Fold:
Amino acid sequence: MNDVFVPSTYLVRQVTKETPDTFTLAVEPQDGEQNDGFQPGQFSMLSVFGVGELPISISGDCGERERLVYTVRSVGQATQALVSQRVGDGIGVRGPYGTNWPVERGRGRDVIVVAGGIGLAPLRPVIYSILRNRADYGRLVLLYGARSPRDLLYRKELATWARNREVQVLVTVDYGGLSWRGHVGVVTTLFKYARFQPAKSVAMVCGPEIMMRFVTRELEARGLSRDDIYLSMERNMKCGVGLCGHCQYGPHFICRDGPVFRYETIRPLLEKYEL
Structure:
């Protein structure tokens, strides 16, 4: 029987610098076999041998079985070691783990994707999936906020998505600078420009918790049901399989019961700032 705590070795095939401190890594199984696949919203436990292990959401296309893609912000020793890997280096991969975004629930409906900062990474597979099956969905509305223009992820893809007539991409930053010609302000200020049918929409939200609190209130005010709003939560996950308890969130374990939750399920917890 396979030990769930023993990682498989994957080789780094591509490293792309997204922002000054954020990189996207594409990795492939060392044995050359296809990976087992994943669902949008799931994560892996990535490890750099001799340094440590950490949970990272999969940010690639679930239609690609040859490789896995992760977008990582360097904020500590383990993440710095991860983004410092070069093509051909090996890293450990466990998973995928966790719950997924309800892409199927969005069929025949408008899909609202709201992301803050690196929260766009776990939502990018949703966008890929909808664009690959474009006729099955209504409008796709992406509301994306970042600290500054230099912190925006996937700039070329944002421009490509915006050229699709059935996709609305709205981007805002906290601080624009003299050369910025776009929106300035928190992500909720973009709702006044968003075009969707609330009664026929499903929303998927990922970002800082304070942002998600205000986004869910705005979505409800626009007429979305709590059952049609989904959030991805982040906690300090260590095992990935619900055994260690590091990621406990009220009665839930983020790694096992999340990271994607229906808003109605965790709404009482989300309003408690200390959790």
Observations:
- The chain has a mean pLDDT of 93.
- The longest strand covers residues 8-19.
- The chain is about 20% helix and 30% strand.
